[in-house]
Amino acid sequence: MTTIIDQLEAPVRVNGNPGYEWTPPGSFDELDSTLENFFVENQQSQERKLAAKLPDEQKTFRLGEPLRREDQFEGIIGRSASLREVFGQLQIVAPTDSTVLLLGETGTGKELVAHALHKRSARRDRPFVRVNCAAIPSGLLESELFGHERGSFTGAIARKIGRFEMAHGGTIFLDEIGDIPAELQPKLLRVLQEQEFERLGSTQTIRVNVRVVAATSRNLPQMVADRQFRVADRQFRGDLYYRLNVFPIRLPALRERMEDIPLLVRYFTARYATRMQKSVDQVSIKAMNELPQYSWPGNVRELQNFIERAVILSPGKVLRLPLSELNQHNSLADIPGQSHGSRLTLKDAERELIIQALAETNWIIGGLKGAAARLGLKRTTLISKMQRQGISRALA
Fold this sequence. Notes:
Number of strands: 14
Low-confidence stretches: 332-342
Shape: globular
CATH architecture of the largest domain: 3-Layer(aba) Sandwich
Helix content: 40-55%
Oligomer: single chain
Structural class: alpha/beta
CATH superfamily of the largest domain: P-loop containing nucleotide triphosphate hydrolases
Strand content: 5-15%
Strand order of the largest sheet: 7-8-11-6-12
Number of domains: 3
């Protein structure tokens, strides 16, 4: 049976629009797809024209559209230049077995990046083991990382396999590596260099094949400098730092990639609306424009929690953003000279200045060119402050 479609020879344009053209002898599915695209775009165009006539308070931004492939990388959402640079670094280093050190403020997505490294590596089908070094008491961390034998300490009623053994053949993610106790750092350094260790209470050496990804929100180079002057509780071995710092990747703070906020709002709204069985799929354009005015010191994690709270508060289709909370935070004056996520107490600032002055004067305290004169203090006053802050010269 011959139809009128079969008799067409020249390309057919829907409503004369060259952007929606069907060229015979194409299939009915192709023609159907062309018509569908035209009608969807035509409907959206009509909606945009109607929206343009509304007051600013009533104009909305559609959230229901799915994210494009180029807007995400292994679950990390964004298209900003700073984040694309991170994606490029991940693609370069992921196929290797090299140690990676992730640097960035709390809430920037370091664990997501660690997962992405694992998924893009040859170890993707092997274990991915996460350890939060700050969440485990220092007295238990050695046992947690390296395991222990039965009877090695009070309460050790059975042999325990450590996280490094569990990660054999795969990847271990050491989160908050800057919080690892000083007495445990040499053993960790040995694992990184030799891929071997002994369980607590054992003399048998265990060899492992593990890729290490570490992360921290702390300033490790400064902690290495602090160790030189024996600043209490802020020490990090230089050799361990250099061994971890094979391939550092710095994750940008959210305030450095504000253009990603609309994508993140769309992603988190869809996630929580689905979870709560709500039909939230729009947000006021005016409200959306308010979000980049806030500095987001908690980064993506803070935005995520903010959107979850907004979905809870939204009874209809329009997302109700509790902007008053952001205005309240913005009204709190920031400490002059301090960036978000790195505010120091007065005691910390004093300690930093003393350490810097000692380093610059080669530990000379008195005299015209000494640290005391540089700080505008008497020699005895500086010594008193050093004792109170727990600063003493490192032994040669």
